[in-house]
């Protein structure tokens, strides 16, 4: 029994950096923007390429784990994660950092199914396995929730490179413990690997996200945007068609035809879009507009981190007491109220009110996420639980990646429409300062103090206005989702065996 809990300890140590890296760059975004001279679009790619690549690669990596055994997959994934962390820390520019973050996503996509397979193979007793899965879920939620605070603490004492180098001690510890203490598992040499379909999915998602981000640019050509959008949609539809015909599909598309499962996936995706987008915008608002340090920004966001990471058990009790439909709809509706309140709150003058709204948002979004998980897992027979888990994982990771993309698109469009720059700037400086608040900060570094103050004042006002607009739209989106959930989960029945 000691060996089983030792394996769980190794799994937790491996999962912690994977979870933290999903959100650790949120408070580092302003620092990276200035340090690397990254454009608004490049900054968004740096942040969300990790989740997008992980979402597409986690399916075939699960099959690879079945073929190699979870210990070998875990070790390979941790080694790649460590190497990519070094590459990210040493990246000289935005393009190299994007590439390194993509490799981090590949490593994470190997670690994630390895940890789940490790729990499944190590804990034979159902009760103990549920306890282990609960610990695993708490580590994932807590790591992602506290990622911004971890980033703030590191940036308060070190350069941005340390955000990635901090992974190395944990990587070394996991490799040592896994190599010495985790038993080997026999792999299945007959397990089929279908990386081509997975690559197709990744390219489709990246093409769709690229079309969104390219549309942000003032020099963007709509024909190019539409062509890339059409290419992404074509590849996505082709992926679905191939999966439906495949004898061993990466993703059980048939499950998504079930109303309850589809609703749960949509809830998870949209909730993550809203939560991740909010955290990213909040981190920039607090630093660029309020003048807070990364650590101060992370501390200011602590209520939403605590609320979202600690409400899981309570949300489960609510679902058991009042039912999935009522709790899911209420969670999404309260999220809409939280976004509306934050859209009309002055963070500088009303910090206590902001913390109250953030607490409500954290509790309600986490409840919505857990309800989405319950909807998915309660609607499938036991033999399809793994396939349903794959759908849930993809919804979470795609939501995290798309949240950055959509928040960036809406924010940039609103920012450009609202900004009123002072006279006297060159055309190039005015174009950059009018593109994003991060690029305005870069321009301000090259101006005299009076002109720099005027530029940053104009950028701050435009960003605050745009932030409120985006949060208002998030409130409208969650309100619509609450209505959809209420009606689609009515008389929901589980999938037949």
From TrEMBL:
TM stretches of this protein: 43-61, 73-92, 98-119, 131-156, 162-182, 194-216, 222-240, 261-283, 295-320, 327-343, 355-376, 469-489
Superkingdom of origin: Bacteria
Compartments, as annotated in UniProt: Cell membrane
InterPro entries documented for this protein: MFS, MFS_dom, MFS_trans_sf
Gene3D superfamilies: MFS general substrate transporter like domains (1.20.1250.20), Multidrug resistance protein D (1.20.1720.10)
A Gene Ontology cellular-component term: plasma membrane
GO MF term set: transmembrane transporter activity
Pfam families: MFS_1
Keywords from the named record: Cell membrane, Membrane, Transmembrane, Transmembrane helix, Transport
Topology versus the membrane: Multi-pass membrane protein
Domain Major facilitator superfamily (MFS) profile: 7-493
PANTHER family noted in UniProt: MAJOR FACILITATOR SUPERFAMILY MULTIDRUG TRANSPORTER MFSC, METHYL VIOLOGEN RESISTANCE PROTEIN SMVA
Protein name: SmvA family efflux MFS transporter
């Amino acid at each position: 029994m000691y060996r089983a809990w030792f394996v769980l300890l190794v799994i937790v140590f491996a999962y912690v950096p994977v979870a933290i890296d999903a959100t650790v760059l949120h408070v580092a975004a302003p620092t990276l923007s200035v340090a690397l001279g990254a454009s608004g679009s490049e900054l968004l790619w740096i942040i969300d390429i990790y989740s997008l690549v992980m979402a597409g690669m986690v399916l075939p990596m699960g099959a690879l784990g079945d073929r190699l055994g979870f210990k070998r997959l875990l070790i390979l994934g941790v080694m790649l994660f460590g190497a990519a962390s070094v590459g990210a820390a040493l990246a000289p520019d935005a393009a190299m950092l994007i590439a390194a973050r993509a490799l981090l996503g590949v490593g994470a996509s190997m670690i994630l199914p390895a940890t789940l397979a490790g729990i499944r193979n190590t804990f034979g007793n159902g009760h103990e396995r549920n306890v282990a899965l609960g610990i695993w879920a708490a580590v994932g939620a807590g790591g992602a929730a506290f990622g911004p605070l971890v980033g703030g603490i590191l940036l308060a004492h070190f350069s941005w490179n340390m955000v990635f180098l901090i992974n190395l001690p944990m990587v070394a510890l996991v490799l040592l413990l896994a190599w010495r203490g985790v038993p080997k598992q026999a792999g299945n040499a007959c397990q089929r690997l279908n990386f081509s379909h997975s690559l197709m999915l990744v390219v489709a998602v990246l093409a769709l996200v690229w079309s969104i981000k390219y549309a942000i640019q003032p020099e963007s050509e709509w024909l190019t945007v539409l062509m890339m959008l059409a290419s992404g949609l074509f590849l996505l539809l082709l992926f679905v068609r191939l999966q439906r015909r495949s004898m061993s599909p990466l993703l059980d598309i048939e499950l998504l035809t079930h109303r309850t499962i589809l609703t749960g996936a949509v809830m998870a995706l949209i909730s993550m879009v809203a939560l991740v987008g909010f955290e990213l915008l909040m981190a920039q608002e607090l630093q660029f507009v309020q003048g807070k340090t990364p650590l101060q920004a992370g501390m200011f966001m602590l209520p939403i981190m605590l609320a979202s990471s600690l409400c899981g058990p309570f949300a489960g009790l609510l679902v058991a007491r009042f039912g999935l439909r009522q709790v899911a709809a209420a969670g999404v509706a309260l999220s809409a109220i939280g976004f509306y309140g934050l859209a009309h709150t002055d963070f500088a003058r009303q910090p206590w009110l902001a913390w109250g709204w953030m607490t409500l948002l954290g509790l309600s979004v986490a409840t919505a996420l857990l309800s989405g998980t319950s909807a998915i897992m309660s609607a499938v027979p036991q033999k399809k639980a793994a396939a349903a888990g794959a759908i849930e994982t993809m919804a979470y990771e795609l939501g995290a990646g798309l949240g950055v993309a959509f928040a960036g698109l809406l924010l940039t469009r609103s920012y450009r429409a609202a900004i009123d720059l002072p006279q006297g700037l060159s055309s190039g400086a005015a174009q950059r300062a009018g593109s994003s608040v991060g690029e305005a900060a870069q321009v301000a570094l090259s101006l005299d103090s009076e002109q720099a103050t005027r530029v940053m004042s104009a950028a701050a006002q435009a960003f605050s206005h745009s932030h409120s607009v985006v949060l208002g739209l998030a409130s409208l989106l969650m309100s619509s989702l609450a209505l959809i959930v209420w009606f689609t989960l009515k008389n929901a029945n589980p999938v037949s065996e």
